[in-house]
Design a protein that fits this description.
about 425 residues; alpha/beta; Peroxisomal Thiolase, Chain A, domain 1; 2 domains; nine-stranded mixed beta sheet; two-stranded antiparallel ribbon
Length: about 425
């Protein structure tokens, strides 16, 4: 029987660049910045690193895309790509190598320089291997596909168009309020309900503020076996973080051709979560998790992913998570709910147990440099567990266990990665 890697791998250093339209930096600059921030955080020397996993979908072709800017001296560098799950995938592979005792100290790095492509989205000729498929890629766009999920969700669960738009708007307001207070985010603008609901339409019902942007950024993690923390982690002998579980699920991809597929749930996310929860020993994610960073490429993606990750029953995100303010970090709850138009009584009725979702600001505020997003989400939870959020006003209390979720592709054809990290037992 396969062994669990729970608590066998430690994260002892992390780095994350500013995300944004970084015209004054090239991809090498981003790689160097993220890597050296992680190296300095861990308290190691770059010469100590024995192997690297590099995640990118289009900003590097071979391991040389990392070894050259970092001037690595003939060590293994493996390029990893799994669509939007690439960031988690690079960390997962690096962790497996440590557990196998092939290496003692490794780095996982993710990066993307998307703005230089000059395309207003993920460039279809660069990032879609099945672009010529007669069914899946013909005439499709990211907003269009997720719009199908949104309209179907409204229909299945009895939300009027106006009510559905307001539910999605609440997600965006929450994320942008948090992102406006995160030094590393791309977009730093608070929004109110009227602005979101009346924003220019992209693909109905998804407006401008329902869609995340493409951007530039990089993130990096230094990893070792938990038993080697005192040997390597000069700066984090007592406040390192351990991997609790991983899940990875790639579907057969026939959602669009199945008559019973209705776009309102992510099967791959359900399977990846089940794997990660089993490894981490989590029975009730809503109660046991303290924080979650999930893939909100579109507002409807956060809503449906929250249900598929088991935070509430399907069709109940509005009643169980969103309207009660459960997904808002406690320090931000009152001002965010006021931006929603909530009454004092509704604010006072928020359940005691919260589960902040995308407290960083999410992809909505950071944008989505594909290879970097998984590590960026992990960076947020890593800092929260340590009590070292960049600004004291962003620091949450008693964060011990967090979930990271990324999914690539589109409804019916996903690649999904889930990681759970937490304080060591």
């Amino acid at each position: 029987m396969a062994e669990s890697l729970k608590d066998k791998v430690a994260v002892i250093g992390m780095g994350c660049t500013q995300f944004g339209e970084l015209w004054d930096k090239d991809v090498d600059d981003l790689i160097v910045e993220a890597a050296y921030e992680a190296i300095e955080d861990a308290g190691i020397d770059i010469k100590d690193i024995e192997a690297v996993w590099a995640g990118t979908i289009g900003s590097g072709v071979t391991g040389a895309s990392v070894s050259s800017p970092l001037q690595l001296q003939y060590i293994p560098v493996t390029r990893v790509e799994n669509a939007c799950a690439t960031g988690i995938e690079s960390i997962r592979n690096a962790s497996h190598a440590l557990v196998a005792k092939v290496y003692d100290l490794v780095m996982a790095i993710g990066f993307e320089k998307l703005k230089d492509i000059g395309f207003g989205g993920l460039h279809p000729t660069k990032h879609q291997s099945d672009k010529a498929h007669p069914i899946y890629m013909a005439g499709g766009t990211g907003p269009g596909r997720y719009a199908l999920a949104a309209t179907r969700y409204f229909f299945r669960y009895g939300l009027s168009p106006e009510e559905g738009k307001r539910v999605l708007a609440k997600i965006n307001i929450k994320s942008h309020y948090s992102g406006a207070r995160n030094p590393k985010s791309h977009l730093k603008r608070e929004l109110n309900l009227e602005q979101v609901v009346n924003a220019p339409m992209i693909a109905w019902p998804l407006g401008l503020y329902d869609c995340c942007g493409v951007t530039d950024g990089a993130s990096a993690a230094i990893l070792c076996r938990t038993g080697d923390v005192k040997r390597f982690a000069q700066n984090h002998k007592d406040d390192y973080v351990t991997i609790k579980g991983f899940g990875l699920s790639i579907g057969p991809g026939w959602g669009k051709t199945k008559e019973d597929y209705d776009y309102t749930s992510w099967t791959e996310t359900e399977h990846a979560a089940k794997q990660a929860y089993a490894m981490a020993g989590i029975k009730n994610p809503r109660e046991e998790l303290d924080i979650a960073e999930i893939h909100d490429c579109f507002s409807i993606a956060e809503l449906i992913a929250s249900e598929c990750l088991g935070f509430c029953p399907k069709g109940k995100a509005k009643e169980d998570l969103i309207d009660p303010g459960v997904i808002i970090a406690p320090p931000f709850r009152e001002p965010v709910m006021k931006l929603w138009g909530a009454t004092e009584a509704e604010i006072a009725a928020v359940p005691e147990k919260s589960l902040p979702v995308n407290h960083s600001g999410g992809l909505k505020s950071f944008g989505h440099p594909v290879g970097a997003s998984g590590g960026r989400e992990m960076h947020e939870i890593y800092k929260q567990i340590q009590g070292k959020a960049e600004l004291p006003s962003r620091q949450l209390k008693n964060v011990r266990l967090g979930l990271i979720h990324n999914q690539g592709g589109h409804p019916g054809r996903f690649q999904c990665g889930v990681a759970i990290i937490g304080a060591p037992e």
